[in-house]
């Protein structure tokens, strides 16, 4: 009787073990699939006709008239479009106006007009900046550190047509870390540099504190959007397996004193793919003495 009970217990223990292994495998499979779906979405956005791979120019405007076009006699020589596209005039107060060449074939926000005012990304409010389109190319105006520049895109850009794909570290659930959230009241100020050499002072709502291999690490995010946290990070893989300047990582807002940092979703900034972006650099506070072997690797086709 006792022997039978032992056999039954052993069998039940074996079934429980198999069931646990099956459940773990199912959780791992779901996590891998969710991460793969995120990677696919990331790739689709990057390679879209208006994605970061389509950038072909970052042209700074001077005060007064700026003649645009591909011909050499323009003030700003574009890499795509008509020989003479038109003239953008930048006023002292930052207002901008464009007069298109009658033969340019260009449109402003999809409309065939001769002239129009331009709104840059810093002054668009809840709307969108003005887009001037000419053939497969277009531009909008961005404002950085009080200066204005044309961000020029072309869906036929070589960086897009010759894109070689993204590489990732193997998906690893152990890099999905539940960190402690320490709020700052009032928010702290963090200085974040950029590839342009500028320094922006950003408000930091708190810090994420986590443990790895017996050590404690802290990361400070900014809050670009009301429903998420944005981390600009670097680690011991930076400049080696991963892009040197920084990687980006978004996280959902803290809940019950915790914030989830899924480093499998750490990804390269636009500057890893094009010289025409204006990316932030990882601040010293977010440079970890830790090799984060998760997420996106350095771009093989980097400029």
Summarize, please.
Helix content is about 15%, strand content about 35%.
Assembly state of the chains shown: single chain
* Elements, N to C (H/E): HEEEEEEEEEEHEEEEEE
The secondary structure category is: alpha+beta
Low-confidence parts, pLDDT < 50 over ≥5 residues? 6-11
Number of helices: 2
What's the average pLDDT?
A: 93
Cα end-to-end separation = 75 Å
Q: How much helicity do the residues have?
A: 10-25%
The largest β sheet comes out as: 5 strands, antiparallel
Strand content: 25-35%
DSSP strand count: 16
Write up this protein.
With 303 residues, the chain is α+β, with helices and mostly antiparallel strands. 17% of the residues lie in helices and 34% in strands. It contains 2 helices and 16 strands. The chain has helices at 2-47, 158-161; strands at 55-60, 64-69, 76-77, 86-90, 96-100, 107-108, 115-118, 132-134, 137-144, 147-154, 176-193, 199-212, 215-219, 228-233, 247-252, 258-262. Strands 1-10-9-8-6 form a 5-stranded antiparallel sheet, with no helix packed on it. It has a 5-stranded mixed sheet with strand order 3-2-4-5-7, with no helix packed on it. A 4-stranded antiparallel sheet has the order 13-12-11-16, with no helix packed on it. The relative contact order is 0.13.
């Amino acid at each position: 009787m006792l022997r039978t009970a032992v056999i039954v217990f052993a069998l039940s223990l074996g079934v429980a073990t198999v069931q646990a292994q099956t459940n773990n495998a199912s959780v791992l499979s779901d996590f891998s699939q969710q991460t793969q779906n995120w990677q696919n979405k990331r790739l689709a956005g990057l390679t879209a006709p208006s994605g970061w791979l389509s950038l072909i120019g970052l042209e700074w405007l001077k005060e007064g008239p700026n003649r645009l076009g591909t011909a050499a006699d323009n003030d700003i020589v574009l890499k795509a479009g008509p020989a003479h596209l038109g003239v953008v005039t930048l006023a002292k107060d930052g207002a901008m106006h464009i007069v298109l060449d009658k033969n340019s074939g260009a449109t402003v926000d999809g409309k065939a007009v001769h002239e129009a005012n331009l709104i840059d990304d810093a002054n668009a409010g809840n709307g969108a900046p003005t887009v001037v389109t000419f053939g497969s190319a277009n531009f909008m105006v961005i404002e950085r550190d009080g200066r204005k520049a044309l961000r020029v895109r072309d869906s036929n850009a070589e960086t897009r047509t010759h894109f070689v794909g993204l590489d990732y570290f193997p998906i690893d659930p152990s890099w999905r870390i539940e960190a402690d959230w320490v709020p700052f009241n009032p928010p702290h100020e963090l200085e974040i540099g950029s590839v342009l050499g500028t320094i922006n002072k950003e408000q930091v709502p708190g810090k994420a504190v986590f443990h790895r291999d017996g050590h404690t690490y802290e990361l400070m995010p900014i809050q670009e959007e009301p429903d998420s946290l944005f981390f600009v990070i670097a680690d011991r893989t930076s400049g080696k397996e991963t892009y040197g300047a920084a990687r980006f990582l978004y996280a959902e807002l803290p809940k019950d004193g915790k914030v989830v940092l899924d480093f499998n979703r750490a990804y390269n900034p636009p500057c890893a793919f094009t010289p025409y972006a204006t990316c932030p650099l990882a601040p010293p506070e977010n440079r970890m003495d830790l090799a984060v072997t998760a997420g996106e690797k350095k771009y093989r086709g980097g400029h």
